[in-house]
Amino acid sequence: MTLSEIAAGIEVTASQEERGVATVDDTDGDLATRFAPHADALPCTPAAAAVVVESHARGGSVGDSAREAGVAPMTAAKALHRCGVDGVSPLGPTARQVVRDWLAGGLSRADALELTGGDEAAFALAGYVESHEPVPELADATRGALEDSGNASVAKRDALDGTMSSVSDLR
Predict the structure, then answer these.
(1) pTM
(2) Which parts of the chain fold into alpha helices (H)?
């Protein structure tokens, strides 16, 4: 028996429904609107936090982002941390462990400050970073903003292209 003989009496009696992956896109609102439900977790207003994140996503420093938002640089760094931006802590891994030991009560503040080698402001920010977790909902909203502005790093790289060496330059 051939395939055509097997399929001879088959006919389609119903239409097939198109099935797809269900998606929910809540990125229509601006960052301030998306940050608003979590205002209590932010060290500043949701609007200021949104300005800080957007400025930082465009490649601005924490200080520049803070000036643009009208907040202190320490507040901007705290907002970035709560919004899931990595690299906000001014201390290295070993010094951050010292801060965690101080927070756990294993060291006095004076000893921890001396061991970290940082100044008072860096120590205070590191203490905040180690004692406050990023808020997942804020991090999700921020991740979208950072991905959307990925062109800023590409533009910066392209602008500096003539100053960078490549592997072929090492011969």
Answers:
(1) 0.70
(2) 3-6, 31-35, 46-57, 62-69, 73-82, 93-103, 109-116, 120-131, 136-148, 151-159
